[in-house]
Design brief:
- This protein has 17 helices and 19 strands.
- With about 450 residues, it is of the alpha+beta class.
- The strands form four sheets. The protein has a nine-stranded mixed sheet with strand order 1-5-6-12-11-10-7-9-8. Strands 15-14-16-17-18 form a five-stranded mixed sheet, with helices on both faces.
- Helix 14 links the parallel strand 14 and strand 15.
- The protein is elongated, with a radius of gyration of 27 Å.
- The protein starts with 12 loop residues before the first helix and ends in a 5-residue tail after the last strand.
- The structure holds one RNA strand of 74 nucleotides.
Amino acid sequence: MFQPVKGTRDYLPDEMRRRNWVLDRIRRVFECYGFEPLGTPALESWEMLKIKSGEDIIDQIYYFKDKSERELGLRFEWTASLCRVVASHRELPMPFKRYAIGPVWRYEHPSEKRLREFWQADADIVGVGEAIADAEVLAVAVDGLKQIGLKDFKIRVNDRRILEALLNIADMPLGRSLEIFRAVDKIQKIGVEGVREELKRLGSSEASINRLLELIKRGGRPDEVLVDLERLVAGSPVGLIGLNFLKEIYKYSKLFGIDEYIQLDLSLARGLDYYTGPVFEIYAGGFEDYGSIAGGGRYDDLIKLFGGDQTPATGVSLGIERILLLMEEMGMLRNLEFGSRVYVAPSSPKMKPKAIEVAQLLRKEGFETDMDLMNRSLTKQLEHADRKGFSWVVIVGEREMAEGRVTIRCMRTGEQRSVKLVELPDHLKPHSSSSLNFNSAIV
RNA sequence: GCCGCUGUGGUGUAACGGUAGCAUACAGGCCUGUGGAGCCUUCGGCCCGGGUUCGACUCCCGGCAGCGGCCCCA
């Protein structure tokens, strides 16, 4: 018997329905904010995927040669593909706001929280260098999460240019910023001592390390930290640029209505090498230990690295599996209610042609409709409809049909009544809609 | 990548160096025009490869997969 390959999994209908529900809502929010869909291949050239990914990620790229010895890889995130498109389509009007939702692949140790094939929902703004873009990208992410029923958030933000300044203040070795960033970023996972070890390995002195660890402890609500921080990086032009940018983001976040979630965290750096300024991660409020459910940052140099003009860009990525797992844990997926579906049951095989007619009529009206394909007895059909969770069964019987009527049965209550065929859609409508409902959703 | 535990019908489990049993699900029947209960019937399995043995699902080795931990990392 074949199983899904390591780190991948199947999604049976019940689960897939929930997944789709979440994906649909996020897509709708993306489009609501004016992001446009962009399709790019799962397969990209290895050469391209490697650019500015960072050592650790490169090891995780699915790599292979095709039959013509081309070196290829599977996308491990969406940003590179976006940059490739932007670099090679100079005609795109700016700003270019695009979203992409789909699977990405990383060769790493699978666990419940980490598969080798997983979905990311990305929203990026290309062509805007100002903080309004970063704030909007955060807003769309928060709104997407709200629309699937999450309520409270913590957005950790930082700017790598501030970190850069702190590195200088702490007298850390020059030219190893990226490695140091990666080490510092792990503080949540490996703890202060772990980071200390890492930094030692990178050739920093004990004193520098202590100083840096002390510096990055600062964090919290922007209103409280920003002033303090201003004094700290006063002597560093780069640091000031970063700081001012964060201020701008914070300013705009108020206008977008997400400022209450924002927290400065000077230890945040993120693992990818291409970030040039602000970086951010979103956590579900009260579930910070669970890990981030979205993350992103600004990558102003990446498009140029891909052969395009110097073009600023920023974006955010939602981790779909993480989000679903979290929702599962919070018990939110059980409350999902889907539009009611209709099952058409001929009372006997003889009525099959009439049943098809009824089913087609309902489908034309937009009802999710299924019918018996196996000449089952009415008993079996009801059993089946019950198990599959249909809300309505339309019984197409000889006796009623002779008068142009059918019987509708509500599967939840067991009530049923006879209705005219021409009025059938009206009788099913109150309980059926193409839109989805969510009991505890804010919306 | 490393260490540990695990691998029996679709799912969950039992036993055993000598013909693999149960539950549940699926399909059908009791029920020839009415679901959720009950009873009955059918279908269906030892992860893969090698070794030890008269004989391996069982013991040994390797692989693969899952789970947990470490490492690594969104």
